[in-house]
Amino acid sequence: MANLALTGIRKTYPNGAVAVRGVDMTIDDGEFIVFVGPSGCGKSTLLRMVAGLESITEGSIHIGDRLINDVSPADRDVAMVFQNYALYPHMTVRGNMSYGLKNRGMPKEEINKRVNDAASLLRIGDYLDRQPNELSGGQRQRVAMGRAIVREPEVFLFDEPLSNLDAKLRVQMRIEIKRLQRRLNVTSIYVTHDQTEAMTLADRLAVINDGKIEQMGAPIELYNNPATLFVATFIGAPQMNLLPAQFDGEKLISNTLSLSGYDGLPQSQNLILGIRPDTLRTDDNGQLEMRVDLVEQHGADNLIYGAILNSENTDSEETEFCFKTGQEVMPEIDSTLRLGFDPDKTLIFDKESGDRLR
Amino acid sequence: MKNWNWRLISTHAILIVGVLFMSLPVWVAFATSTHAPETILRDGLQFLPGSHFFTTYNEVLFVEGGVMKSVLGTTMLKNSLILGLGFAIGKVIISMLAAYAIVYFRFRLATPLFCVIFLTLLLPLEVRIIPSYEVLAKLGMLDTHVGLIVPLIASATGTFFFRQFFRSVPDELLEAARLDGATAWGFFIDILVPLSKTMIAAILIIMFVVGWNQYLWPLIMTTKEENYTLVIGIKQIYQILAEGGELPQYQKAFALTILATLPPVLVVLIFQNWFVKGLVESEK
Ligand SMILES: Nc1ncnc2c1ncn2[C@@H]1O[C@H](COP(=O)(O)OP(=O)(O)OP(=O)(O)O)[C@@H](O)[C@H]1O
Ligand SMILES: [Mg+2]
Q1: What is the ipTM of this complex?
Q2: CA dihedral (B232, B238, B239, B240) positive or negative
Q3: Cα A193 to averaged position of ligand 2 atoms, centre (Å)
Q4: Which residues are near ligand 2, the ion (C-beta closer than 5 Å)?
Q5: C or N terminus of chain B, fewer CB within 10 Å?
Q6: What is the pLDDT of residue A140?
Q7: What pLDDT, on the 0 to 100 scale, is given for residue A202?
Q8: How many domains in chain B?
Q9: A82 Cα: distance to centroid of ligand 2 (angstroms)
Q10: CATH code for A241-350?
């Protein structure tokens, strides 16, 4: 077991594409780190550099105190689970799981023991003699994980391992991965763009945007205290509501809204007011007027989508809004809701830089 | 209805004519080969089997001086098999290795090199037969199996097929194997070769037939009778017939021809399932 340190990592692909622009992070022993970010932000590239599948343009990676920049993938003591499983199609499940151990010259009994242990841990013991094409997607995924587990590596790497599974199986496997990682206590990096996966799996979450880490921390910390507009909108579902705003010295003005409870903000500067859908409440004295366009019933919760009417008088488009509430609130379509919120639970961002001001 | 019947009959008629056109000569050759030489000389080609099957084929295959001056039919059969198998196996090995290098090793000249390999399609052996002969003569390899096979086994088509196949193998397999500690050689043997099974089978079959039917190169390369392949044997026996002498042994010439066509036909018949699979299916 060991911690993992990335220092000043950059990656430029041979074709000139810059995928990673300066990443520093330390991952503690046994920690579960999730990389999350939009498509093309460089998550996979970063992961593959740790695996040794991509060269490192600049910077250094240490596992423990060992510099692994120029160590071959096989000797890094990392194991990876791929999105499309990448099982060897012509080998049995047992063959797939033992191949890496055989290549390392491990004695047969030891290989068998490890494979059997991993198989019972993953509940694939009955399939050991089948070939991958005789397994379901979930079973294949387990085999891919088994192949990683038997190696007993210092670090597990997962690149969107669940994205080929259907929604239900995904939730189930997610829980299993988490349980497994707790139990084996192996340092892990997990790449996903599913933010539920990210929130639920991570000890710490790294939000990546355009090759840089926007913010890193515990999921709930990122949810409550996002450092930037990007993180605030990326983390949390449904997405945070955003309203353009300005501060006039006393009140926060957003179109015809004039909100008190804010002070110490810079004046004559474009701001963004961020309100999470679940911090809103129906309030007859509330200033926000929302026209209901759509109600999504999720069971316990209703998600109400619509437009904020207070912004209609500007030439900008209607501001899309989402309000999360209990199942008892069931407004008519095209009716108008009055909404209120607690200013302390809202976030203010600088529109230009995206930095959080409050 | 009537219309439909006519269509059915006419298409079948065309197909039957095609089948006859292809198979009748083979049948005539076989039927004729089972007759006595006198019958053939007197009555010409035969359409029905005669009574000399065992005598003729026994002499051709097992009796010294039965067909050629000294070499037995079985020896020629063996030589043909060695050429066919060596040719096919050699081609598969060489072209797999070449394709492996081109697809998986990112050296700078991979693409131009592949083009060069592909260009050799324009330079079949017939074009370079004299220099090839010269080289082998200097190496003292005339009249050897190795000398016969090696100059033939470089294969642009094989390389092309394997290259296309390797490119369709997902990259993640290579990456998984690298993380699993497979060496370059290990990945080739443990992963690529088993994945290419059906492809290998298909190319082996095609190349066996091509190798078996090689004519010009063995003709130039072999001077001693003991190294004749069946194809060369056929050529020689007809030459002897043309030169005349005693009673012309047409039945033996036909028997040799039948013997020469049999193995490729058998190979294709037996392995045709694999063959089709290899060319059609992309197993992943
Ligand atoms: N082999 C490559 N050659 C050149 N550019 C590449 C290569 N692989 C990725 N890139 C570029 O690098 C950037 C980051 O790619 P990467 O695969 O890391 O994204 P990602 O965050 O994993 O996205 P996704 O969520 O879609 O998987 C992208 O802009 C991509 O176009
Ligand atoms: Mg990716």
Answers
A1: 0.86
A2: positive
A3: 9
A4: A 44
A5: N
A6: 93
A7: 94
A8: 1
A9: 10
A10: 2.40.50.140
